[in-house]
Specification:
53% of the residues lie in helices and 14% in strands. It is of the alpha+beta class and 554 residues long. Strand 6 and strand 7 (175-176) form a beta hairpin. The longest helix has 40 residues, at 249-288. Residues 1-19 form the signal peptide. Keywords: Cell membrane, Membrane, Signal, Transmembrane, Transmembrane helix. One of its GO terms (cellular component) is plasma membrane. InterPro entries: LSM_dom_sf (IPR010920), MS_channel_C (IPR049278), MscS_beta-dom_sf (IPR023408), MscS_channel_2nd (IPR006685), MscS_channel_C_sf (IPR011066), MscS_channel_TM-2 (IPR011014), YnaI-like (IPR045042).
């Protein structure tokens, strides 16, 4: 830091304090009459600046360059000095050898009139125009001097231009004593301001946030933003007071350029950090929603906003801070963007596909989806692709453009999960036993806590080649596949227990050879009780012992 200060001080020392405009002595005309001429923009500019130099201060000659109307001589002297201070305070770098020396000069760039503009960006209202045979500052420029001076030295800093020189005009190391004193005061003010702002932020802001229960948020998110804003305040103070010191125009021009670039740079940093605060707020909202897709959207939104802030901030720094004409850059960027868009059609398609996914929300993280060859659980949704974990535990990356155009079967959005099977029983099962078995199946569904009670179908509905078929068509109200498998297991165990209790035999593809019974052999055909009440009693015993026991456990 000290080394940089010494370099800056040496830079100020080697440049004369009188050089408030670049007057290259090698380019100055030999004839002194040129210092009092208004025949061209070059002569008028030379007359204005040369006669306001501290070593050649002749404001009476300089005010001849103004197109006056009804101003008094005293007011005219004030105006010409103020106009000079406007040039100096804005750091307008006037190179006298670049001013046109043509008496009939025409501004073909702006209005095709005999006018000359010094700086259309910083001083668009200050220009020379030809009046008769003389070039003078326009009447419009003269009418705007007081306003321009107030804008250049706001908040009463213009009064310091008259107060500081009274401290002393002795020259030390190329600077007046009042300039050295002003530099010291500026450094002191910046130091005190930094301390005050630090105390206010560290003590006041954090204390207030702690009182409202936001201490963590204040320390992690708000305090960094507030510190950057404090730096902006210091830069703003520096840009205000550095104008008052009337340092060499070379130094002022570069310092103001850096300070003007620092302002949008700091603003960009502030908004960059504010994005984290906004993202944190949306993350809190996403936690309150049932959709897990919102949790994936927040990080993507944060990255997008940060990229947008960086791009806009960079353009703003170039245009407003560094005074760079960005129109050609934007034009080239648009042409390059078109070429890039043609070359990256798939990428752009995937990007818009991801936007449609976030808008339509056909699935969310954790859902089981099926789409063509894709069959698995969604793990992550990005701006380009979606990551799906298959049931083989492999990972599939599917471009979002394809997903947006595909038909997706989202198993995760099912309110109920269907379970359908056919229970095959042997042909020797009597009708009253089949009815008891069907009634028992319905009791199992009605007593299970995870089955849909308002809709199920359990009927003896088919006679196949080797069995009598009972349709078992039910729905489970469970959140995921694991719970569905558990419910299936419990239902099937109950079905087998019921079949064993009633003596129902399940059929399977067989061929049975019936032979006459031998005296010493029993027939393989079971004997069924012809009384239906016996099976109803067994069913009641199953309901009372098995199903009620499970209900008590649940």
């Amino acid at each position: 830091m000290k080394f940089r200060f010494l370099l800056l001080y040496a830079f100020l020392f080697v440049h004369s304090v009188f050089a408030q405009v670049i007057l290259d002595e090698n380019q100055l005309p030999i004839d002194p009459e040129q210092y009092h001429s208004l025949t061209s923009p070059y002569s008028t500019t030379l007359t204005f600046f040369y006669n306001l130099r501290e070593d050649n201060f002749e404001p009476e000659e300089a005010l001849k360059t103004l197109r006056l109307t009804d101003q008094s001589e005293i007011e005219a002297r004030r105006l010409v000095v103020k106009l000079k201070q406007v040039f100096d305070g804005n750091g307008v770098y006037v190179r006298i050898n670049e001013i046109p020396n043509d008496p009939n000069y025409i501004d073909t760039l702006h209005n095709n009139q005999p006018r000359f503009f010094f700086d259309t960006k910083r001083l668009p209202g200050v220009y020379l125009e030809k009046v008769g045979d003389d070039w003078k500052f326009s009447a419009f420029t003269v009418s705007q001097i007081n306003e321009l001076h107030q804008d250049t030295y706001p908040y009463g800093t213009d009064k310091l231009l008259n107060v500081l020189p009274k401290l002393g005009n002795e020259v030390y190391l190329g600077l007046h004593f009042w300039q050295l004193a002003g530099l010291f005061l500026l450094i002191l003010i910046l130091f005190i301001s930094h301390k005050i702002i630090t105390i206010i932020l560290d003590k006041g802001l954090l204390y207030a946030l702690d009182r409202f229960g936001y201490g963590y948020i204040g320390e992690k998110y708000l305090l960094p933003v507030a510190k950057v804003i404090s730096i902006f305040v210091i830069v703003q103070l520096s840009s205000l007071f550095i104008r008052v010191l009337q340092l060499p125009i070379e130094a002022v021009s570069w310092i103001l350029l850096l300070l003007n670039a620092a302002k949008p740079f700091i603003v960009t940093i502030v908004f960059y950090k504010i994005v984290d605060i906004v993202a944190m707020y949306f993350a809190k909202l996403a936690e309150k929603t049932e959709s897990t897709l919102d949790d994936q959207l927040v990080p993507l939104l944060r990255k997008t906003l940060k990229a947008f802030v960086v791009i806009v901030g960079t353009l703003y720094i170039l245009k407003e801070g560094l005074q760079v004409d960005i129109v050609p850059f934007l034009t080239g960027l648009s042409i390059g963007g078109l070429a890039f868009a043609l070359a990256a059609q798939d990428t752009i398609k995937n990007f818009f596909g991801s936007i449609m996914i976030f808008i339509d929300k056909p699935f969310q993280v954790g859902d089981w989806i099926t789409s063509g060859d894709v069959d698995g659980t969604v793990e992550e949704v990005g701006f380009r692709s979606t990551r799906v974990r298959t049931f083989r535990n492999s990972v599939m990356y599917i471009p979002n453009g394809k997903i947006a155009d595909a038909t997706i079967d989202n198993h995760g959005l099912r309110q109920y999960r269907r379970f359908f099977t056919t229970l095959t029983i042997t042909y020797d099962t009597p009708p009253h036993l089949i009815q008891a078995f069907v009634d028992g199946l319905r009791k199992i569904v009605e007593s299970h806590p995870d089955t849909r009670k308002d809709y199920y179908n359990i009927y003896f509905n088919n006679l196949s080649a080797y069995s009598q078929d009972v349709m078992f068509y039910v729905f489970f109200e469970v959140p995921n596949w694991t719970e569905e498998l558990r419910a299936r297991h419990e239902i099937l165990i109950s079905i087998i227990t019921l079949a064993n209790q009633l003596g129902v035999r399940f059929a399977f593809p067989t061929q049975t050879l019936h032979m006459e019974s031998f005296p010493e052999k029993k027939t393989l055909v079971p004997e069924y009780n012809p009384d239906a009440k016996a099976y109803q009693a067994k069913l009641q015993d199953f309901v009372s012992r098995e199903l009620k026991k499970k209900q008590d456990l649940n």
